[in-house]
């Protein structure tokens, strides 16, 4: 190989190597950065807020309504203490697919910790239990040993409603969380409350 060809080959090799290195660095810079969120209820702590319902919306609405229920004194009139609560239907009337346990589980945990409520996991709409095995064993125990049926005092039902308003390049999403506590003996609501979450979005809708 002549000296000129050798220099050309070396120069080409160096250029290829540098090009590969540049693409490698660029590829590394595109890697995602992950940051742990210390408090999902605090947007300033790194938690993301979107036009949709986010974790802090569920947590804040649930906590506020639990406090409202406990302060109302409705559970103080239960025929037994702690009262037995059955989770009824919670309707999702928003445009989003929502796992409603994100709302109801927070409420159940708080009520259980208050000592005023026990939540049935063997009763549900259409006979569908949250815990089928526990339901089966309860029915078996009732049939074999003549055990009494579980007494139930209250049901908790509700819905989540979405309202949408647009003016110019601004859009507002309003989510209303509604809950009702019904006394099974009378069939009447003994407590109701609702909480609203509003979000205003300005500019492009991309990303929502």
Verbal overview:
The protein has helices at residues 3-29, 55-72, 101-114, 132-145, and strands at residues 83-93, 117-119, 154-167, 170-183, 188-202. It has a single domain (50-202), classed as Rossmann fold, CATH 3.40.50. By secondary structure, it is an alpha/beta fold. It starts with a helix and ends in a 6-residue tail after the last strand. Strand 4 and strand 5 (188-202) form a beta hairpin.
Summarize the structure.
This protein has 208 residues and is α/β, with parallel strands linked by helices.
Give the CATH topology: Rossmann fold
Named CATH architecture: 3-Layer(aba) Sandwich
| N-to-C order of helices and strands | HHEHEHEEE
Please count the beta strands (DSSP E, at least 2 residues each).
5
Spatial shape: elongated
Helix content: 25-40%
In terms of per-residue confidence, which ranges show pLDDT below 50 for 5 or more consecutive residues?
A: 21-26
In which order are the strands of the major sheet placed? 2-1-3-4-5
**Estimated share of beta-strand residues:** 25-35%
Q: How widely separated are the two ends?
A: 62 Å
Structural class, by secondary structure, is alpha/beta
Cα-atom radius of gyration: 29 Å
Indicate the mean pLDDT: 79
The total of helices stands at: 4
Largest pleated sheet: 5 strands, mixed
CATH class placement? Alpha Beta
**How many distinct domains?**
1
Task: Provide the descriptors you would attach to this structure in a database record.
208 residues; alpha/beta; Rossmann fold; five-stranded mixed sheet; 4 helices; elongated
